[in-house]
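FIELD: query
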Amino acid sequence: MTPKLSKRLAEIVDALPVKKGSRILEIGCGTGVAAREIAGRLGNGHILAIDRSSKAIEQAIKGSATEISKGSLTFRKTTIEDFELEAGEVPFDFAFAIRVGALDARHPEIQQQALAKIAKALKPSGKLFIDGGDPIKEVKLRNVQ
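FIELD: result
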């Protein structure tokens, strides 16, 4: 049985600018609960969900067979500070992260590197959203190297 969204996670997902056809990057997807919910709202869009934990990615894949088979969801094991678009991969409309240490000041030593990788993965108009707002906030990526 797939876990349901918590009230907090549902509020975050509802606050994201998800549109049919969007390309979205989720950073730190854990077991994929938010990614599955978003995949169901994308129509012909796509969400790539990444996490540094092999176990989390295994669980996410196991619980997401329907979304993966429809082509609306992909998982990849990587850290955001090492993330690169693959050859031919289209940049994302926006990225979001919930409780990711590289982006919420718990690991400031890798924050600039993480932000630079995110900026490279997004379209020029792309945005980054993290938790900690009401319920999310946008992190400005201008002038990130």
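FIELD: remark
The beta strands are 23-27, 46-51, 73-77, 92-97, 122-131, 136-139.
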